[in-house]
Design goal:
OB fold (Dihydrolipoamide Acetyltransferase, E2P), single chain, 30% strand, 3 helices, seven-stranded mixed sheet, 22% helix, alpha+beta
């Protein structure tokens, strides 16, 4: 699955689970209950299992400690959107975004970067870094994934 998702654009990879869930719901509407007496779960439990995630891409403007082991990271997106503050663990790994702006060098030999070929954590993010963050607003803006651009 990871091989397939690496070829899919980031927008499609975010929408794919939602599309599969909708397709499964629509496909199961026309089916009759099985003869073994098992009934599908009620619709209320299905909606509790699904959750709405949000994403933001922008510049890190502030990183400050929240509680032990946690950070509050403030991100300023494009000019038409408000700042977002998310809650991340200090040891959350930061991934590399696909298609970084400075990827003109094939082997990575000509361009120097602070974060090239290293695994960093949320605690090592600096003000001014451009990041993409997926977070859950129902869990106090808890970070699920962070990508460095």
């Amino acid at each position: 699955m990871s091989e397939i998702s690496s070829r899919i654009s980031p927008v499609i990879s975010l929408l794919l689970p939602i599309i599969l869930q909708i397709a499964g719901t629509v496909g199961s509407m026309g089916q009759q209950p099985s003869s073994q007496g098992k009934t599908p779960p009620p619709p209320a439990s299905r909606s509790q299992a699904s959750r709405q995630l949000l994403a933001v891409r922008g510049e890190v403007t502030r990183v400050k400690p929240a509680t032990k082991g946690f950070l509050l990271i403030t991100i300023r997106p494009a000019k038409d959107f408000p700042e977002v503050t998310v809650l991340a663990r200090e040891n959350d790994l930061v991934g590399s975004a696909v298609g970084r702006a400075n990827d003109s060098d094939l082997l990575g030999l000509l361009i120097e970067s602070d974060h090239d070929d290293e695994t960093i954590t949320a605690a090592e993010l600096n003000e001014g870094d451009i990041v993409s963050v997926i977070y859950d607003p129902q869990l106090q803006n808890k970070v699920l994934e962070i990508y460095l651009r």
